[in-house]
Write a structure and sequence with these properties.
mainly alpha
């Protein structure tokens, strides 16, 4: 099986046998997915926007889920899952999914607490529990799903 044209000649390897094809200047090899955006300050700005969108999705979902049952519940959960999954795909990191999920979860949990006047936003029906638990389950799934591994430069797949 040594008949391949690229047998790894010319590559540097460390003492542990790890390939060092990634340049030290911080640039990613061609074909590797880069975090979007590449700058640290811009990425933190994207995370801040995703956090605010998570809060907005939590408030909107809590209002819609009981208003148009069962369609509103499905719409609220679909919106939350779309935000979590989209944040992860946009940033290409798990934090991209976890940040809006954290904003959503904190908002929804704060909306479930009773106010001093005795009022609260969530009813005691099954839809509220499905929204809370289903959204949290979706947040965990989207934040912990395995992202595809970046391709190995020079490796030929069969």
């Amino acid at each position: 099986m040594s008949g391949s044209a690229d047998s790894g000649a010319g590559r540097e390897q460390r003492a542990g046998g790890r390939d060092t094809t990634r340049p030290r200047g911080g640039r990613w090899p061609d074909g590797w997915p880069q975090p979007v955006p590449a700058g640290r300050a811009a990425r933190l700005g994207v995370y801040a926007v995703l956090l605010v969108l998570g809060v907005v999705a939590g408030v909107a979902g809590s209002l819609v889920q009981s208003g148009w049952f069962p369609g509103g519940l499905l719409l609220a959960l679909a919106g939350a899952v779309g935000l979590f999954w989209g944040g992860g795909k946009l940033c290409r990191t798990r934090a991209g999914a976890a940040v809006p999920a954290a904003g959503w979860a904190v908002t929804v949990v704060l909306l479930t607490t009773a106010r001093p006047e005795g009022d609260f936003l969530f009813g005691a029906g099954i839809g509220s529990y499905v929204f809370l638990l289903g959204g949290m389950l979706a947040a965990v799934m989207c934040a912990t799903i395995a992202l595809p591994a970046p391709p190995v430069p020079g490796h030929k797949y069969r």
